[in-house]
Design goal:
2 helices, 81 residues, mainly alpha, 0% strand, 2 domains
């Protein structure tokens, strides 16, 4: 037996049944959405941090490699003056 909104044992009307089904559907859809929706803000910050670290490592490598060559070039020019 299904109880109607008025507490009697009579069958609910089409509108009441539709309203209940709609509420159930919305509740289920919200639950599924909340389970599937991920917050990617933290992951994005970590990715940007890794990119910055990689760029810094490349800059340090280039400066370490070319630094001695540039210093030698300035020494050669300076001694030639």
């Amino acid at each position: 037996m299904i109880l109607a909104c008025d507490g009697t044992g009579s069958e609910p009307t089409y509108r009441e049944g539709f309203s209940r089904m709609l509420k159930l559907y919305v509740t289920a859809a919200n639950a599924v959405h909340s389970m599937l929706h991920r917050d990617d803000r933290g992951a994005t910050a970590v990715e940007y941090g890794l990119i910055v670290a990689l760029i810094a490592a490349v800059i340090i490598g280039v400066v370490a490699t070319l630094g001695k060559q540039v210093a030698d070039a300035f020494s050669t020019v300076s001694s030639g003056m």
